[in-house]
Specification:
The complex is a heterodimer.
Chain A: H1 16-47, H2 63-92, E1 99-106, E2 109-114, E3 119-121, E4 123-127, E5 132-138, E6 143-147, E7 152-156, E8 162-166, E9 172-178, E10 190-196, H3 198-207, H4 214-224, H5 227-230, E11 249-251, E12 257-259, H6 262-270, H7 293-305
Parallel strand pairs in A: 1-5, 4-10
Antiparallel strand pairs in A: 1-2, 2-3, 5-8, 6-7, 6-9, 9-10, 11-12
Chain B: H1 20-24, H2 29-57, H3 68-87, H4 90-104, H5 112-134, H6 148-152, H7 157-184, H8 197-229, H9 242-276, H10 283-296, H11 312-339, H12 349-372, H13 374-380, H14 384-414, H15 420-447, H16 461-491
Helix pairs in contact in B: 2-3, 2-4, 2-5, 2-16, 3-5, 4-7, 4-8, 4-14, 5-7, 7-8, 8-9, 8-10, 9-12, 9-14, 10-11, 11-12, 12-14, 12-15, 14-15, 15-16
Classes of the chains: A alpha+beta, B mainly alpha.
């Protein structure tokens, strides 16, 4: 019976219990107030029914009561607000050193590319116990990446990267849903997230054909598209040197400072005139229409890799990543 | 009052003249209310028909009854019709139109011709949207999210958008009429603090109609511009921003849910007071809560966008404001409950619907608190949890209130009584059917089933079957009133001026009222809901 009628999705991420905890508190408080109001109405409706209580007692109102039922719910709401916001803050901040997967949504499939080069469609393999960060974009309309078992969800937008992260805690196969309506086969834009023991995951990584790491593919693109002629690895280039750039503040020629994140890199490729780095001329041509979403992901991964001088810095929970040897 | 003792043969707004022209060219707010009643009832059945097809499709996990494209069109058209052509005009355009002049002691609304114009505009918009649906349909969802609606959908987006665009003007005109009427046309002695709460809540809704509707009109115009001329506003490939659309859309469409629910709350205040025979507890707080909802309602739109990639701090602010807007609604529920304390409570049909409203609106409101909570919203956003929440507020709340109001004022509107026993049965069926339909969807939603899914994994089937079963009970609950209301027009007992022995100016004129409402302008010398000093000789009619 209960197998056919589950009431909660599985809890397979570190966050799931926190979301469920708040959910249970919300249910408890809601049930309390709903039953309270039902009980009071029922009691009044029976006790003061016209046949036994024909003469109503007129009461205009009561300021203390009004204050009580304004302030008490407000106070309770503030508890929900604080707790809900704490969870949201965690969701919004991917931990440093998370394993990254690039996700492209399109009508109607999910494409994944691991840093190590493995590509998947509608299936995502991840290991238990690692933080996994998804860098997502859409090729067409808005999609939404939703894994109920992880209690995480984020829209996947055309024209910009969004992020989402989770920390799987339980091996298994879980639903992946597109939860933003995206056209004809919206309900077929589903897939699986397969959480594996670390050893099994390593075996899965090794079994796949090696297409070259994502950063290495990005480096190849970087050469092919001619980026390297201006963005040289010394200070003589006509464009800024990109080594060590990612994640750092960039001074712009209009005096603003921005952090060089995924969306900054995307914009600089597709709409280079939008933010000109201080001391450089706006000479870069737009690559709009010349690079696919996947290629953008690879270029971002490459530029990221240029910002990591030490492949095995202590304290990082990344495994030794072979891709770094192909990049200075 | 002297008018209350006239006999049945007297002239009233229904028999004053006959013929199709006397209806289509009428400027009588009561006749226009009936024109609206017929039109929105037709829209309700069309929207309801789509809902039944949706529920039938979801009986089985596989998408086997209709194709994906058809299913997508069904939920889109269900949403567009129910939201823009039924819920938004429902109480204001019918009961509001009929009752506000009567309640404030006026002969008509401030601008009777504008009122008629608003109905023609509504019909033009409705026919445009229906034409788009008949000639192929539209599949964007009622939310028209970009860039799907502007670039990718191959369906009749323009027709539907233009239909909604046009209808918006009828809403603006109705709102304008209400605001001016309530400000300028109150009878002597009808001060703001004596104004029935139905007028207060329609006034609050009218503010949103006038201030909010232009935004959806502009937004849909921008969608049309991008779709027709490839002007890059929302599509990033053309240099636009898809999330901008969501900001603009929800800036209207969130307050719009308060356009829908506020007039319903007004109905409940009237009904609870009448059948408890008491002044509404905390009158000022209930009145001000309506205004607070209207104002705060404009400041919470981005809670529809917590997973749309907005900034964390924006999400925080919108979450906080969303909790704040929940408070005035809670205040109303507590005050209605307190109104019953030491009352003399009768269980007539309108009161049964009001009980149903309070219960279901409480559930709908509290699940709204779940959604305001950022951590939980991320999980349940765009799932059936949201579908269930929205229907609890809009169908469980709003439609219950609409039914309460229709039953309460039906004798006044038509001059006929409906069969009480059948009406009680329908109230019960609607309550049971509604809960069976929508409560399981909360669970389905928390389990993670996204909304707008044509096919779904098998573990969600049991609850979906339950929901479809409930929907068939609900349908019976709605068909019954349709039948007995029509039956009562011919066979119902003639209604006395005040069958429920209620207070309020609308009850001091005959049923149905004369064309000019009052033979002489009433002078109000008593407080609102003055059940204490109500003249007892009007308690003569039994049923």
């Amino acid at each position: 019976m209960w197998k056919n009628l589950p009431l909660f999705p599985e809890r397979a991420s570190a966050l799931a219990w926190q979301v469920d905890g708040l959910y249970f508190l919300l249910i408890a408080v809601s049930a309390f107030f709903t039953l309270l109001i039902f009980a009071v109405i029922f009691y009044f409706a029976v006790k003061y029914r016209h046949s036994v209580h024909p003469h109503p007692v007129q009461i205009d109102g009561s300021l203390p009561l009004e204050l009580a039922w304004t302030l008490i719910p407000l106070g309770i709401c503030m508890i929900f607000f604080a707790w809900g916001s704490l969870i949201y803050f965690q969701e919004a901040r991917p931990p440093r050193g998370a394993m990254e997967v690039y996700v492209v949504g399109k009508q109607w499939m999910w494409k994944f590319e691991h840093e190590t080069g493995q590509r998947e469609i509608n299936q995502l393999h991840v290991p238990i116990g690692r933080d996994v960060k998804l860098v997502m974009s859409s090729q067409d309309v808005i999609h939404d990446f939703f894994v109920p078992a992880f209690r995480v969800k984020a829209d996947v937008l055309p024209g910009r990267f969004t992020e989402l992260w989770f920390h799987p805690t339980k091996a298994g196969t879980y639903h992946l849903f597109c939860s933003q309506y995206c056209g004809t086969d919206h309900s077929a834009m589903i897939g699986q997230v397969i959480v594996m023991e670390p050893v099994a995951f390593q075996a899965w990584l090794n079994a796949g054909e090696n297409m070259g790491t994502l950063a290495a593919n990005g480096q190849q693109l970087f050469q092919q598209l001619g980026c390297a002629t201006c963005h040289r690895s010394d200070t003589q280039g006509r464009g800024p040197n990109l080594a060590g750039l990612f994640g750092k503040p960039v001074m712009l020629d209009d005096g603003r400072t921005v952090i060089a994140d995924e969306n900054y890199v995307r914009e600089s490729i597709l709409n280079p005139g939008a933010k000109i780095v201080s001391g450089f001329k706006p000479i870069m041509p737009s690559f709009q229409g010349q690079v696919s979403e996947e290629s953008l992901g690879a270029l971002v991964a490459y530029i990221k890799s240029l910002a990591q001088p030490q492949p095995n810095e202590p304290g990082s929970n990344r495994p030794p990543a072979p891709e770094r040897s192909s990049v200075q | 009052m002297a008018t209350a003792v006239q006999t049945v043969e007297r002239e009233n707004y229904l028999n004053s003249n006959y013929g199709i022209k006397s209806w289509l060219l009428t400027t009588d707010h009561k006749r226009i209310a009936l024109l609206y009643l017929v039109s929105i009832t037709a829209m309700f059945w069309i929207g309801g028909f789509f809902a039944m097809l949706i529920r039938l499709e979801l009986l089985t996990p596989a998408g086997d009854m209709v194709s994906s494209d058809t299913y997508n069109k069904l939920f889109t058209m269900h949403g567009i019709i129910m939201v823009f052509f039924f819920l938004i005009p429902s109480v204001p355009a019918t009961l509001g139109n009929f009752l506000i002049p009567l309640m404030v002691g006026a002969k008509d609304l401030a601008f009777p011709r504008v009122n008629l114009l608003s109905w023609y505009i509504y019909m033009l918009g409705a026919i445009t949207a229906l034409t788009a649906m008949v000639t192929g349909g539209v599949d964007t969802g009622w939310t028209f999210y970009t860039p799907f609606s502007t670039t990718y959908s191959n369906t009749h987006v323009m027709g539907a958008a233009i239909g909604i665009f046009i209808t918006g003007f009828s809403s603006i005109l109705t709102g304008l009429n209400f605001i001016v009427t309530i400000h300028r046309m109150r009878a002597p002695g009808m001060t703001w603090r004596r104004l029935p709460l139905f007028c207060w809540s329609n006034y609050a809704a009218a503010l949103i109609m006038v201030l909010g509707t232009p935004v959806i009109a502009i937004t849909l115009l921008l969608v049309a511009l991008e779709r027709a001329f490839n002007i890059g506003i929302f599509n990033p490939q053309l240099g636009g921003d898809p999330v901008l659309f969501q900001h603009l859309f929800w800036f209207y469409s969130h307050p719009a849910v308060y356009i829908m629910i506020l007039p319903g709350m007004g109905v409940i205040s009237e009904v609870v007071a009448c059948f408890s025979r008491k002044r509404v507890f905390g009158y000022e707080f209930v009145a001000l809560a309506s205004i607070a909802i209207a104002v705060l309602g404009f400041l919470v739109w981005a809670h529809h966008m917590f997973v749309a990639g907005i900034s964390v701090y924006a999400a925080l602010v919108f979450s906080l404001l969303s909790y704040l807007v929940a408070i005035p609604s809670a205040v109303k529920v507590f005050n209605w409950t307190a109104t019953m304390y030491k009352g003399a409570i009768r269980y007539d049909t309108p009161m049964l619907y009001a009980f149903g409203f309070i219960g279901l609106f409480t559930v709908g409101g509290l699940t709204g608190v779940f959604l305001a909570s950022l951590g939980v919203d991320v999980h349940v956003h765009d799932t059936y949890f949201v579908v269930a929440h929205f229907h609890y507020v809009m169908v469980g709340g709003m439609v219950m209130a609409y039914m309460a109001g229709l039953h309460f004022w039906w004798p006044k509107i038509t001059g006929r009584m409906y069969p009480e026993a059948w009406a009680k049965l329908s109230a019960l069926l609607v309550f049971v059917g509604f809960n069976t339909t929508f409560f399981p969807l909360f669970i389905v939603g928390y389990m993670g089933l996204p909304r707008r899914y044509h096919a779904y994994p098998p573990e969600f089937q049991v609850l979906n079957v339950l929901s479809t079963a409930g929907a068939s009970i609900l349908a019976v609950g709605y068909v019954l009133p349709m039948i007995y209301f029509l039956w009562s027009l011919r066979y119902g007992e003639p209604a006395p001026p005040n069958p429920y022995n209620a207070v309020g100016l609308e009850w001091m004129t005959p049923s149905p009222p004369p064309t000019h409402n009052f033979d002489e302008t009433p002078i109000v010398t008593w407080e609102a809901y003055d059940y204490e000093h109500q003249p007892q000789e009007e308690v003569t009619v039994g049923h």
